[in-house]
Amino acid sequence: MKRIKSILLAIAMLLATPAFFTSCQEDAPEINYTMNVSVINDFTKVVEAINNGFLKNEEAIKKLTEAIDKMNADQQTKLQAIIDVLNSVNATLETKLTAIEAAMKAQTLTLESKLTLLETAIKNQTLKQEEMADKLITAINNLQGSMEAKIEAITEAINNVNTTLQSKLALIEAAIKAQTLSLEAKLDLIEAAIKALPDYSSQLAAIKTAIENLPDYGDKLTAIEAAIKAMPNYSDKFDAVTTALNAMKAQIEALGTGQASIVEAINNTTAAINALIAAVNSGNTSAAAALAQIIQKLEELKNKIGSGGSTPAAEYVDLGLPSGLKWAKCNLGATKPEEFGNYYAWGETEPKADYSWATYKFGLEDALSKYNDTDNKTTLDAEDDAAAVKLGAPWRMPTKEECKELLDNCTYTKTQLNGVDGYELKSKINGKSIFLPGAGYYDETILKSNATGYLSKSLRTGERDKFEGIVFIEGFEITDGNGERCIGASIRPVRP
């Protein structure tokens, strides 16, 4: 019998009471100190409170953001005060990271100042270079004013001669990922960035950064169009469009065979564009005429591949999780949060009628052909990740650690949405929520309603015939658990 099993419920029930009383006792002195700090609201004292552990997490960020914005000082003085915290040998890592997050949210620091701060944090190893874009997303999402004003602020930061190329690319990546900018604004920014960057290699890096971080295939092609229009000479335009298409193809190929038709369409378009470039080089057509036809070819490709199945930016929820991971609003195959969507066996990318070991793609329970003791793989490859195959990059299935992060950082309430039973998971960090419907699971050809499983892309440690994920069983709370690989379960996609 195929069953979804809860693995932590008994432990959680045993530990819940002592853990609750311990946390209540530890929180008491923090409340008193917080009241004092809120009255003083002075930058130095807030930093001291964080450093001493009296202010933590979101409360610490909020208080320090307020303190930065209330500092009666010019831009350089404010920036230096925060840099001093980052360089202080007495400041804890938590204090430094809180100072960075508060600075990103502060309204009285310019985006250029925030870039300078992040560069300092990377230089003194408080942050890694790859973490810069995530911090800049926070900065961009907290920009005030019109869309034009936001784009102007980002463009000014890119134009700053003191900003490094790495920082400029991180800023472009952040702008593309930011939820507060429209697609039109992002395209305007790409054009502005191309014009501002000093040479072809940096312009090409900017184009690649943009197309790597736009989830929709059609939007990637529109970004390529915007970029090549902004480039100053035809030679660079021609080289950039083929290089960008090849980069886009490589990204799609990494998702596996499910994207073969899209890859073929890109190959055909690239071949046609190369023929046009060859005609220019041989003098048989003008560069201007060829460019017009290249734009037309890109539009035709856009019509062929559409969005590549990617869901729009509005279809995910940023719960403020520490990893920065976003969770889709709907199950894979659904269009509304309460819809069940499709069911998948672990590692399979298509729904089917019978979910049993007899029909399982990777063999029998005791004779697995992949993700076994021979290949030693415990996490799904992109080609076997149903979310990645169906939606395209950067969507994918969550890992077991990411499922646990979701549960650890949310409160969950059993409820109904439009008459469908399920759980509302509400972020402890920013109050946003997602709804996981009680979709049940398939055991062979029978839909069982007494339990629901959500697949992760991870195997259960020490048991290669079982997946890890999120489960809820009738009469019990939602938790992280496991089930047999062959059953049909739900998938809730995630993305950076």
What percent of residues are in strands? 5-15%
Q: What's the overall geometry?
A: flat
Distance between the termini: 37 Å
Q: Label the structural class.
A: alpha+beta
Number of domains: 3
**pLDDT averaged residue by residue:** 84
Report helical residue fraction: 40-55%
Query: Which sheet architecture does the biggest sheet show?
Result: 4 strands, antiparallel
* Spatial arrangement of strands, main beta sheet: 1-13-12-11
**Low-pLDDT regions:** 5-41, 309-314
What features would you describe in this structure?
43% of the residues are buried. α6 runs antiparallel to α7 (132-141). This protein is α+β, with helices and mostly antiparallel strands. Helices cover 50% and strands 14% of the residues. The radius of gyration is 25 Å and the shape is flat. The strands form 5 sheets. It has a 4-stranded antiparallel beta sheet. A 3-stranded antiparallel beta sheet has the order 2-3-14, with no helix packed on it. The protein has a 3-stranded antiparallel beta sheet with strand order 6-7-8. It folds into 3 domains: 43-196; 233-305, no CATH class; 316-495, no CATH class. The protein has helices spanning 9-40, 43-51, 57-70, 75-87, 93-105, 111-123, 132-141, 147-159, 165-177, 183-196, 200-213, 217-230, 234-253, 260-281, 287-305, 386-391, 400-408, and strands spanning 4-6, 316-317, 326-328, 363-364, 367-368, 410-417, 420-427, 433-437, 441-443, 446-448, 451-460, 463-473, 479-484, 494-495. The protein is built from 17 helices and 14 strands. Residues 5-41 and 309-314 have low confidence and may be disordered.
